[in-house]
Amino acid sequence: MNILVINCGSSSLKYQLIDMNEEKVLAKGLAERIGIEGSRIKHKTTGKEEVIIEKPMSNHKVVLELVLNALVDPEHGAIKSMDEISAVGHRVVHGGEKFASSVKIDDKVMKALNECVELAPLHNPPNIMGIEACKELMPNTPMVGVFDTAFHQTMPNSNYIYPLPYELYEKYGIRKYGFHGTSHKYVSKRTAEILKKDIKDLKIITCHLGNGASICAVQNGQSVDTSMGFTPLEGLAMGTRSGDMDPAIIPFVMEKEKLSLEEVNNLLNKKSGVLGISGVSSDFRDIEEAAQNGNKRAKLALDVFVNRVKKYIGAYMMLMGGVDAIVFTAGIGENSVEIREMVCSGLEGLNIELDAEKNKIRGKEAIVSKDSSKVKILVVPTNEELMIARDTKELA
C-alpha cells in the first residue's frame, strides 16, 4: 500500500510517497516559489539521482500535476501508474474543536475546514487548496486530513481555557489549541517503543525545538498541556516569534512606535524571538556561532530560549506529578548538542542527568541520559510524514 503525503504551504509544497508495507520512502520532493517567478521542484526517488524540474507553477493544481508526473516518470519516477497510490494524506494545520483525530475527507469535512480558516488564515487556505487540487486530479483516491491541533484535543478544559470573559470562547472559539501535534504524537509513541514501556504507563515531556518550537506534556499517551496556544505565537521564545509576554506591551508599543495592528502582528511574529534579541539571525546555528565568538546579545538570546524551555519542563513535571522521559526533537532538538546540554544543566537535583558523551550525537535516535538518571533523556528525530501516512492507512 503506497500513501502519498502532501504538506502545502502558501508558496511551497512538500511531498513523500511511502510504501506502508515496509514504511519505506519511495520518493520525496519540495516544490518552491509557487505563483512566483523561478518556481521549481526538487524531486528525489530513492536509489536515483535528484532531479530539478523548473517550470512556471501558477497554482497548487499545476504543481501537483507535475509531482504526479514525476512519480510515474519512466526515468526518475517511483511507480508505474497512478493506480499504485492507494490514498493521500494531507497535513492540515488547524482543525479547531471540530477534529480530535484524523478524518477521511468528504464534503462535510471540507465545509468544516473552511470554517476553521479564520483561526489559521496563513496556513489553512493553502492546505485546503492542496486537498481540492488532489481531489480534482485523483477523484477516486481516498483523501485523509491529519491535523496539527488534533493531538491536543485531549487537554482538560482547565488547561485550554484563557482567563478572559467566557463569552469570547463561546462566540469565537478563543482558547488554547496547540500545534506540532503530529510531531509530539510521533515522538512520544516512539519514546515508549525505545524504552520498551507501555505509553499508557508513562509521563513524557516532548520538546519540539526548531525555528518554531513547542513543548508538550504527554500523560498516558495523551496531550494534557502544550506551550503554543490560540496561535503558534504563544509559549517559547522562537526563531522570530516572541512567545509568552505581558499583553499590555502590545498597546504600549503600538502607541510609542505608531504601529498598526498588522505592523505589530508582524513585529511579534517575524521580528521578535531570538532574532529580535540577538540582532544576528533567526537561525540558531548562526546565533550559537556568534555567542561563541563573544557576541553578548547572541548569548543572551540563547539564555532566554533555554530558560523558557526549562520553565515549561518544570511546569509540566508539576502538572503531571513527575516525568519518566524528556525527549528532544526537530531541527534544534535533534542537532544542537549545546542547547540540549544547556537545557539539562542544573536539573540533576530533579533526577535528570545528561551524559555528556552520549549527548554528542546529531540527527539520530539515542538515549543520552546517564545510566543512573531516573528520568530518561532521549533524542528522537521527528517523522511527521510517517505519522500522517500511518493515520491515512488506518482510515483509508
Describe this structure in words.
The chain is of the alpha/beta class and 396 residues long. It folds into two domains: 2-147, Nucleotidyltransferase, domain 5 (2-Layer Sandwich); 196-384, 2-Layer Sandwich (Nucleotidyltransferase, domain 5). It has 14 helices and 14 strands. The chain has an eight-stranded mixed beta sheet with strand order 5-4-3-2-1-6-8-7, sandwiched between helices. Strands 11-10-9-12-14-13 form a six-stranded mixed beta sheet, sandwiched between helices. It is globular, with a radius of gyration of 21 Å. The relative contact order is 0.11.
Helix content: 25-40%
- Architecture of the largest domain in CATH? 2-Layer Sandwich
Alpha-carbon distance between the two ends: 10 Å
Main sheet overview = 8 strands, mixed
Total domains, how many?
Answer: 2
CATH fold-type name of the largest domain: Nucleotidyltransferase, domain 5
Q: Please, how many helices? A: 14
Name the beta content range: 15-25%
- Structural class of the helices, strands and pairings? alpha/beta
Q: Give the full name of the CATH homologous superfamily of the largest domain.
A: ATPase, nucleotide binding domain
Mean pLDDT: 92
The radius of gyration is 21 Å
Main sheet: strand order: 5-4-3-2-1-6-8-7
> Which of globular, elongated, flat, extended, rod-shaped describes the shape?
globular
Total number of strands: 14
List segments where confidence is low: pLDDT < 50 over at least 5 consecutive residues.
none
Helix-strand string:
EEEEEHEEHHEHHHEEEHHHHHEHHEEH
Write down the CATH class of the largest domain. Answer: Alpha Beta
